[in-house]
Design a protein that fits this description.
With 163 residues, this protein is of the alpha+beta class. It has helices spanning 16-28, 66-79, 122-131, 144-150, and strands at 3-11, 36-37, 41-43, 53-62, 95-101, 106-107, 112-113, 156-158. Strand 6 (106-107) and strand 7 form a beta hairpin. Helix 3 (122-131) packs antiparallel against helix 4. It starts with a strand and ends in a 5-residue tail after the last strand.
């Protein structure tokens, strides 16, 4: 059985635009239906990096189990040159996070769904609003629009880039 999976994408190393385009192609190879994507947003970094991020959200449809999907994401990130041992929030060529997997709620040491920090990140919430405007967090039951009003403010802007 296939599930709609919300994926957050982020990049702040190398050709940020091309990194997102390549990641979209990778996600298309995992999806049973066409990948739906948000606009690309540029945002301030969280953590030690000084380089701004390009962020977006994609929705795929897949029957790949969440743990295996996470493993495929990590393998892809590594194949792009990301050091998976680097400190948290450091610069990265590509970062793929599972934000939601259908209505599933998962709390494992290596995987939390819905993603544990998405509600604090406008760079996830604003693109998500474009892709699934009526989304409701399956764990809290709170609507996306309400979550956005509660999220910390940050410097973020929508880019005029087609991908």
């Amino acid at each position: 059985m296939s599930h709609d999976v919300i994926v957050a994408l982020g990049t702040n190393e190398g050709d940020r635009y091309q990194n997102l385009v390549n990641a979209k192609k990778f996600l298309a190879g995992l999806s049973d239906s066409p990948v739906q994507v948000s606009s690309i947003y540029e945002s301030e970094p969280i953590g030690p990096s000084s380089t701004r991020y390009y962020n977006a959200v994609a929705q795929i449809t897949t029957d790949i189990k969440p743990e295996h999907l996470l493993q495929k994401f990590k393998e892809y990130e590594k194949s792009c040159g990301r050091d998976l041992e680097s400190p948290r929030w450091s610069s990265r060529i590509i970062d793929l996070d599972i934000i939601a997997y259908g209505e599933k709620i998962i709390d494992l040491p290596q995987l939390t769904i819905p993603h544990s920090e998405y509600s604090q990140r406008l760079f996830v919430l604003l693109p998500l609003l474009e892709v699934v405007p009526d989304w409701v967090d399956p764990k809290s039951g709170i609507s996306l629009k309400e979550i956005i009003t509660l999220a910390p403010d940050m410097d973020i802007k929508k880019m005029e880039l087609d991908w």
